[in-house]
């Protein structure tokens, strides 16, 4: 384990018993990898079970990035050796589904690039606020010959409708703060200088409310708005392709040649990327 | 019955056989209480059954308010003695569900505060237009330790997506006209000086159309977009808690202490407020 | 067949094997009629089955119009003699449903009026971009005493929520580019001078991506966002009314008197128009 690995962390700060902050500090670029899976899982479990926490804010300590893609350079065994989550889903979509259902309000405070896992974590959070000047959201995977795997095909159309969701996913381009606001990708984009103050004030306000009222209200909203695990699961059918490549492929291909990510094509023909 | 009660009314004006106006004139603050339930029910029944009415506009005669919350100061027996509605739901959600399904176009013209029942009536209406300068929408209930009960957890996410709906409900803050337009809480916000003219012109336009074409089109839109009564009903499981408190509570509590509204916690642990 | 009929065409241009353009050139006003049904069906079949096409752009060669309504002046037999489509739906909704499900990205580039069939084709396309100055979208049918028949009651509320969808359908008014963007009727409105360049660049970008990744991603988005054929079909129950009128009608009527389109009222009381 080199120095940069040892200093990589996901910090949980309890600003008060009811108001937590989770900060990604994974230099150099907040790339999320297999070492981070159990760290985040521990935090998600705390959010689910702590009796006093009411609101948790996710942010970044790294200039220019919120949270980016899954670490394709990590050894595949490090990912494949991780157990399935409590929902029966793969570890990352499992944690995201559990975050959405937790009886706690989650807020993504997005400054810098939120791509791949970063966009998916933001989408699984309850509320999303973006820096107007510095936020970039993207599901870039189709541009690399892959299919996103962390739930965006289920979550994006419910936020912004089919047309804009397909543009985000199939255009695979960078979305800045104001376009993200227009499309409903985030609740609002705010001037960068106001983002932290706005999110802090909202989090402290919610933290002052009754936890049971929060949880009951959220649960009732979820009836109409939350995708089921069964809907998210097919996005991951190709996960074994990610882990066990090269495998027999449709149309005689052994990988997505354009991106050079050979082997990230599943036996069922679905390319999957975090 | 004191003077202010005797002058409180919900006025139904037939501007033409096909174009009706319903005006809340409940001084001092358009607080909706048990005395108003049968008055509104009579109007809803007329809207449902009249063969000529095609469009009905809801507005207010009180400066600064559209329609606000349920009257918590009324005697509980006045509410509990009201019969269930035709849908089997409690009287208020019953009327709102019936309004949404009526073969008539309902338009909320929002000037001033539309909070609690006011927001819920607006959400149950087909179209919503707001004064840019004077409209304030809010579901404030979670801020008082309560859960909204008139359908907003079912209706808000269908209008604006889960993230913005959770912000409205769990942030429990005031939403002005332009933010309401951005979020899709209203169709549009308009300069206050233009609101009445715009709504009148639209209502008269729709009133000139064929009633059967209106009704058939609305019914087909409802397939994709209207929550079922079964989805709205759980928001009201706590209604008996509202009426029959104090009752045994989850976690040993007998009320929502913060708001001082002791007893507004149901046997099933859901705090419910209109 | 007169001269204007012989020069009416729907042009398919293969800009590259993966990037196609379909241009409506049906003078004088891009009115879509029974002669165009088999022409468009042939194109839709090519889009569905070609192994290399990844993106198809729909646009117009006629100044001032994108694509407008169905040709009510054509002989009814020309429409009624057309066979049902592969989905079992009537020919036009059949083609639109198949376009939405094709493993290809469809983009409507809207300059001029997109009304009736034009709006419905745009709504069935995956992405929609509009000229800010020149696009006009409208479902005008209710204003003529008819019910739209090509899927907008299923598709509009999923894009923009129930309230705005009901305004579009029951207000039956013209929607310009910026309002269409605000409502989510289109992905974005762009300055007219930028529309073509923007759409071309996006189409070429998508055409450079992996076809299987595009198709898999689109299919997963469709789970959450695409109406079923069963939901679209009731919009067409009145089709026999369109073709076999005059027929016995509800309420003793034999047509929608206001529009003068006598006979366009079905036996089940639903007036239907393309």
Describe how the helices and strands are arranged:
The structure is a homotrimer of 274-residue chains.
Chain A: H1 3-6, E1 9-16, E2 19-25, H2 36-49, E3 55-60, E4 65-67, H3 76-80, H4 91-101, E5 105-110, E6 113-115, H5 117-124, E7 127-131, E8 136-138, E9 147-148, H6 152-171, E10 175-176, H7 177-183, E11 188-190, H8 192-207, H9 211-225, H10 229-232, H11 239-244, E12 255-256, E13 261-262, E14 272-273
Parallel strand pairs in A: 2-3, 3-5, 4-6, 5-7, 6-8, 7-11, 9-14
Antiparallel strand pairs in A: 1-2, 8-10, 12-13
Helix pairs in contact in A: 2-4
Short description:
The structure is a homotrimer of 274-residue chains. Chain A has helices at residues 3-6, 36-49, 76-80, 91-101, 117-124, 152-171, 177-183, 192-207, 211-225, 229-232, 239-244, and strands spanning 9-16, 19-25, 55-60, 65-67, 105-110, 113-115, 127-131, 136-138, 147-148, 175-176, 188-190, 255-256, 261-262, 272-273.
């Amino acid at each position: 384990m080199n120095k940069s690995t040892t200093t990589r962390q996901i910090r949980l700060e309890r600003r008060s018993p009811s108001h937590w902050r989770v900060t990604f500090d994974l230099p150099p670029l907040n790339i999320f990898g297999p070492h981070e899976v159990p760290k985040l899982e521990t935090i998600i479990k705390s959010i689910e079970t702590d009796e006093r926490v009411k609101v948790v804010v996710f942010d970044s300590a790294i200039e220019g990035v919120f949270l980016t893609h899954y670490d394709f350079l990590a050894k595949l065994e490090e990912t494949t050796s991780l157990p399935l989550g409590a929902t029966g889903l793969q570890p990352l979509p499992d944690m995201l589904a559990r975050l959405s259902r937790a009886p706690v309000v989650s807020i993504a405070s997005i400054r810098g690039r939120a791509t791949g896992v970063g966009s998916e974590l933001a989408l699984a959070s309850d509320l999303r606020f973006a820096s107007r000047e510095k936020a970039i959201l993207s599901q870039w995977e189709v541009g690399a010959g892959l299919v996103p795997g962390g739930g965006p095909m289920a979550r994006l159309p419910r936020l912004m409708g089919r047309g804009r969701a397909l543009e985000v996913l199939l255009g695979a381009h960078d979305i800045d703060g104001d376009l993200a606001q227009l499309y409903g990708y985030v609740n609002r984009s705010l001037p960068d200088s106001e983002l932290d103050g706005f999110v802090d004030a909202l989090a402290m306000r919610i933290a002052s409310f009754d936890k049971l009222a929060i949880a009951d209200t959220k649960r009732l909203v979820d009836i109409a708005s939350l995708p089921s695990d069964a809907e998210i699961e097919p996005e991951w059918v190709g996960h074994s392709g990610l882990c066990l490549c090269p495998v027999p492929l449709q149309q005689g291909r052994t990988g997505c040649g354009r991106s050079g990510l050979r082997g990230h094509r599943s036996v069922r023909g679905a390319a999957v990327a975090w």
